[in-house]
Amino acid sequence: MMHWIILPVVLPALLAPLIGFVMRHDIVLARTASVVGTALLLAIALGLTGLAADGTTHVYRLGDWPAPFGIVLVLDRLSALMVLLTSSLALIVLIHAIATGWDARGRHFHALFQFQLMGICGAFLTGDIFNLFVFFEILLIASYGLMIHSGGRERIRAGLQYVVMNLAGSTLFLFALGTLYASTGTLNIADLAVRIPQIPVEEASLVRVAAILLMIVFAVKAALFPVQFWLPATYANAPAPVAALFAIMTKVGAYAILRVHTTAFGPGMPGTEGMAGTWLFAAAIATIAVGALGVLGARRLMPLIAFSVVGSMGTLLMAVAAFSPTATSAALYYMVHSTFAAACLFLVADLVVTRRNGDTLNPAPATVQNGLFAALFFAAAIGMAGMPPLSGFLGKLLVLDALRAPGMIGWAWSAILVGSLLTIVGFARAGSALFWKSTAIAGPGAETAPAALAAPPPVPAPVPATVAEVAPTMAAIAALAVLSVFAGPVSAYLDDTSAQLFDRGGYITAVLGPGEED
Amino acid sequence: MEIIVASTIGVLTAGGVYLLLRLRTFPVILGLALLSYAVNVFLFASGGLAIDQSPILARYGEASYTDPLPQALVLTAIVISFGMTAVLVMVGLGAYLEADSDRIDIDPEDEDENAGKDAQA
User: Fold this and answer.
1) Phi and psi of A43, rounded to 5°?
2) Is B6 near chain A, with CB under 8 Å?
């Protein structure tokens, strides 16, 4: 048995307390350890992706207990991809947080950051639903700390809402697990995939209840309508680098829906067939509408980006709702894209907002490097809105192409296309208010003497961004460009990934051993 | 026995949801605590209700046993909900001291008014 699979969980888990207890008074040491740890995580993730690329499903049995009795970690193409996405995003965000000094504005940023990575990687790797719950709690408790990092009145109030929302969600998760265990007698995903088809349709009502309860729980994480309302307030009030890291948190929900509702409750299960997709599709349309209208109506930059994240989750989950290999492959491409696009927008917003007086979308005197920030915002916004040449365009094209089934095409295409148009309008309005109209207003130096009496208290002159501050944003945009240039190989890999996800027999055999297939 | 357990879970859940909807810090904390009690009892019952039986397989004879797995799940759930409640109390206290209000929902006008200042903090 190979131990590499558990390293993405163990490495941050060991590093976090070390940073928290030993390096708490030395920010340089903590930064170094955190960056080295995250870079190592990226290297491990690359290794695991290489390992999983040949299509075998690797299983790590904790304590060497055989599968339905012990907990297993499962590495296939999908989980390797998600861990790779997490670690590359984490490195970008971490460098930004260090370069802009966000990590020094409160305590224990790096320890919480590592715990967060541990929870996210664990959630992607586990093959047991109760273990998924535990990793969810780990990533949530770390995110509570990160969310209220550096404090402030609005931030703590938004943080309180976020905590309450997620605690209610966790309770629902436990109810779902209890129902599932009562009706099937197992919580191992592969074992569920074996047992659920054996339950006759007329006795499957409890399983259906459990499946829908689980979907609601994952929908809370994925910010799906009608449980998306926590996201705009949370993301808009979180420290910007943390909001950028949270771009992967919504994807944890989408991943969990993909994994559980494909493998355990997926197509071919008489009791639960087609149910998840129907609800998910309708909810995804509403989510796109909420996101697009939110982008159009936002009066501040951070909520605007947060609503665009909601809209992108709608597009992503609409592709997931089809539960077919082609649509899933499109969904995965869009998932990778939207993670980087959202993170990139939050990082640009951080660079801009810290140099302006607040993030309200009104013209203000142009800040330093107005052109640079405008270019970065423009690139990130066309990525998010889905315009060529960046990968958002290809991602949306793949999703549209996958959703051509007769009953689906009308709703899906109009939702995505109209949603994209509204998003473009919203971003164009924000960009012109922030960068274009701003240049028309004279700076504070041009004010006449009498006006100075009524003028707001002097703001310290904005400092130009250093290379280290801009580099992470550039890297995120570069990731979008790379994703777009190598769209062919990437989508070929993602086709294999989704084929493997839909090959339930292979997953069951790998986890439970041969002879357990249905 | 079934009716006692079922109605206990029902009453705890109803009380928890009611308190959760009060949207003030202290009732919400109590409500989440009630909900976590309800879910713990529910998890216990999910392995089937077996009274007065050990969770360990008897080596001899026909002795029946209760399912040990839900007990392990409940233990994990208790530990997690205990930790989460502690975090919630601290965040709630922080929010109350910062904002001089224990409301959990954010007033939209209030938010816009303070948005500019806090975004820089």
Assistant:
1) -65, -45
2) no
A87-103: b (≥16 Cβ within 10 Å) or e: bbbbbbbbbbbbbbebb
Single pTM value for the model? 0.90
Closest by CA position to A272, among listed A325, A324, A196: A196
Domain boundaries, chain B: 2-50+67-111
Contact A427, A383 (CB under 8 A): no
Strands (E), A166-264: none
DSSP string, A437-497: GGGGSPPGGG--TTHHHHSPPPPPPPPPPPHHHHHHHHHHHHHHHHHHHTHHHHHHHHHHH
**Domain coordinates of chain A in residue numbers?**
4-441+467-512
Residue A381's nearest CA partner among A415, A425, A416, A417 is A425
Q: What is the pLDDT of residues A185-243, one digit of tens each?
A: 889 999 998 888 888 888 888 888 999 999 999 999 999 988 888 899 899 989 999 99
> Tokens 């200042």 correspond to what residue?
B117
Which residues touch B96 (CB under 8 Å, ≥6 apart)? B25, B102
Q: Which residues of A touch B50 (CB under 8 A)?
A: none
Cα separation, A473 vs A341, in Å, equals 10
- Say yes or no: A156 contacts chain B, CB-CB below 8 A: yes
Answer CATH for B2-50+67-111 from 3.30.960, 1.10.287, 3.30.460, 3.40.1440: 1.10.287
Nearest to A233 among B36, B106, B117 (CB): B106
